[in-house]
Amino acid sequence: MSQGLSPIAFLTRTRRPGRIGVTDILSWAWLILGTLAVLIPVVWAGLSSFKPAAEITRFPPTLLPRVAVQQTVPGFDAPLSLWTVDVDGQRREMAMVRRIGLKAQMVDPSNPGPPVSVDVKTISPVQRLTIATENYTDPLTRFDFLTFLQNSVFVTFVATLLTLVVNALAAFALSKYRFRGEKAIFVLIISTLMIPLTVVMVPAYLVVVGVGLVDSLWGIIIPTVASPTGVFLLRQYMLTIPDELIEAARVDAASEFRIFWRIVLPLTAPALAVLAIFSVLWRWNDFLWPLIVLSSRENFTLQVGLNAFQGEFSVQWNYILAMTFLSLAPVTVVFLFLQKYITTGIAGTGMK
Amino acid sequence: MSTPKATDLGGRALDFVMGIVEAPINGFERLMGRKRMPYLFLAPNLILFGIFTFLPIAIAVGYAFTGGTGLFVSERPFVGFDNFRQLLQCEDYFRPGSCRESLFWTAVWNTLWFVGFNVTATLLVALVTALILNRAMAARGFFRAMFFYPVLLSPVVIGLIWKWFLDRNGLLNAFLQMLGVPPEIFLLEVGWSRFFVVVVSVWFHMGFYTLILLAGLQAIPKDLYEAAAIDAASPRRTLLRITLPLLGPNLLVVLILLMIRSVQIFDEAWVLTNGGGPGTANSFIVQYIYQMAFGSDLRLFGLASAASVLMGLVLLALTLIQLRLGRKMES
Questions:
Q1: Do B27 and B132 belong to one domain?
Q2: Inside any domain, residue B82
Q3: Is the distance from CB of B41 to CB of A175 less than 8 angstroms?
């Protein structure tokens, strides 16, 4: 086997400017195939979410959302479907009156005379591009999706705000003070990173019942506010703020809280922004904990609502996909604009 | 000029609110002294951790030794090791059907198989992608972002997108039909459904691990490669003698992290397979815990807690290995 073709050579060879080798071709093929693998299921779901209910189960499917064109023809009560027909070597659009076996009876829609009989194999339906906006409007008006959406927005917003405040306060204490138990408290907080929800979900549910937050949006906001990753991220950033700034403010007789609020917090803005992005994504996408805590429909978040909806209306894919897309859209927009912060934030802290 | 006025108004409103918040905090400072302030600042965080993280851990272990259907410990009879005995009583651990709690052992075996395939596949795909991206490729930022995008999506959304892609009338079947292959209902067939749970998991998470491995690759000093080039070392030698040994600690951390997360597979598999189907082909440990505790009216909290404790021990062992590796890396 030549060296250029072996997989190891392919993975390690460095690029030589001006020459394109097998290695480069294979690398590009991998990256492009990977990109397609990421995009195709998402784009396919997106395109399907605009298809009308009657079209969505058509097999083999069309790529774009299309619908058969219908037209009212004088002399017929119901609107007739339009088809392309070859008559005497000429392509024409005709309306189908009825279909008998392998023959279809067609009329000219503008000049309806006696029906002509044609072979069904020679005709094809006239279709036009449509966007079934009812897939989006129906779930929001007829089903509970507006409520789910409001709940998700409320939870995401309030939980993120509280997360920033509570963890910034703790990070301030842990980065700018020397006090007894400082190290122990920091280790204690960081150690909670190692306790996954899946292990404590039963007793955590019991605690939420005990404090009376079960089946309430606060029951999914408050238990998730204190975040070890949040404390860690903010503390590491606050450590870089020079202590002289704080000493100078103390000389000017500023209170400790004022120092936090007026000096430290504004200087921590970049780290707060990263934590805010993560907090929004966590809350918006959270599933298992809301699934356990919320039991009545009017309290469901978008994710829990989607899961319940797909169980009940498993055939109405047009609605399910539209609501899936509604849930995916804000995340995609956030990612498009803040992609750099997110990837550097993850590379820097190893968190997700 | 209305905009500056509006921000000014917002700023003044914020000042007003903060003035009210500030007053009692400053009062505390005057009363207790500056040295006690960090405790006050830590209080909200520690109280929340105490109630919603440490209290549940303390209860979790105790809970596993109680029976009955009551919710609070005071309403629950102590049953000793009964829950553990029920979970672990088995004639032949390799045949879940012979176990007293056959659902649990089905879930254990399903999870083990999943962890094996998922960890291998994700690690390979992420490593190859990271190695490729680490070459000075054009558009590296674009591809890194592309592979990372699924990581940010919700597991429910991912479950539904893939369910539609794999549907009887979905795109995959349409493609297969073009090739003349008869359509298949992938998610109702045991082998295919397991295969696609792994595929979806790799699709979902590989971007995250690629990012970590790429950061590790970029931390390898460039002069090592230059020296190798001067010595005319073959690419294979460079990979085996420089890249992989220096990436080793990173690879181990990724491996353990992947194992810890794979053991906890639930959300996307639950949505994709309609709750572990077909039958129990994709029922995993977290699903077992969820179903015992919340899935039916039985509310077998004791049994679910005992299963949680067993899983927690496995995760704890993996975490300790990870910590030890992390410490070795630092030194």
A1: no
A2: no
A3: no
Of all residues in chain B, what percent are helix, strand and coil, respectively (each to 5)? 75, 0, 20
C-alpha distance across the termini of chain A, in Å = 42
Contact A198 B266 (CB under 8 A): yes
Q: Is A78's Cβ below 8 Å from some Cβ in B?
A: no
> A105 in helix, strand or coil?
strand
- Residue B231's φ and ψ, nearest 5 degrees, are -80, 0
Residue of B nearest to A210 (CA): B72
pLDDT, tens digit, for every residue of A85-99?
877 777 778 888 888
β-bridge pairing A103-107 and A116-119: antiparallel
A66-68 vs A127-129, strand pairing mode:
antiparallel
Q: Do B305 and A202 touch (CB under 8 A)?
A: yes
Q: What is the mean pLDDT of residues B274-288?
A: 90
Q: Determine whether the interchain pair B56/A203 forms a contact, defined as Cβ–Cβ distance below 8 Å.
A: yes
Range of the domain at A270: 136-349
Domain presence at residue B85: no
- Would you call A223 an interface residue with chain B, using a CB distance cutoff of 8 Å? yes
> Which residues of B are less than 8 Å from A255 in CB distance?
22, 25-26, 29
What are the φ and ψ backbone dihedral angles of B277, each rounded to 5 degrees?
-80, 175
Between B34, B128, B315, which is nearest A199 by CB?
B315
A34·B145 Cβ contact <8 A: no
Which among B52, B151, B165 is the nearest to A223, CB-wise?
B52
Residues B35 and B140 in one domain: no
The Cα–Cα gap between B304 and B290 comes to: 7
Closest CA–CA distance from residue A71 to any residue of chain B (Å): 28
Interface test with A, best of B30, B49, B238, B270 (most A CBs within 10 A): B49
In a domain, A57, yes or no: no
- Residue B318 carries which side chain, given as an amino acid letter? L
A38 → closest Cβ in B146, B177, B178: B146
Check whether A2 has a pLDDT greater than 50.
no
Cα B27 from chain centroid (whole Å): 44
Tell me the two tokens of residue B178: 């073009």
Residue B80 resides in a domain: no
Question: Are the beta carbons of A287 and B267 separated by less than 8 Å?
Answer: yes
In this structure, the answer to whether residues B152 and B24 fall within a common structural domain is: no
Q: What pLDDT is attached to residue B7? A: 66
- pLDDT tens-digit series, residues A217-269: 999 999 999 988 899 889 988 999 999 999 999 898 888 999 999 899 999 99
A69 interfacial to chain B (CB closer than 8 Å): no
Radius of gyration of chain B, Cα coordinates, nearest whole angstrom = 26
pLDDT at A4 over 70: no
Indicate the length of chain A as a whole number. Answer: 352
Q: Which pLDDT band, with edges at 50, 70 and 90, does B1 fall under? A: very low
| Min Cα separation A298/chain B (Å) | 19
In a domain, A282, yes or no: yes
In a domain, B88, yes or no: no
Nearest CB to B164: which of A48, A284, A346?
A: A48
Q: What torsion do the CA atoms of A152, A155, A156, A159 make, to the nearest 10 degrees?
A: -170
Closest listed residue to residue A27, CA positions, set A17, A14, A38: A14
The answer to whether B38 contacts A42, with C-beta atoms less than 8 Å apart, is no
* Chain B residue with minimum CA distance to A320: B160
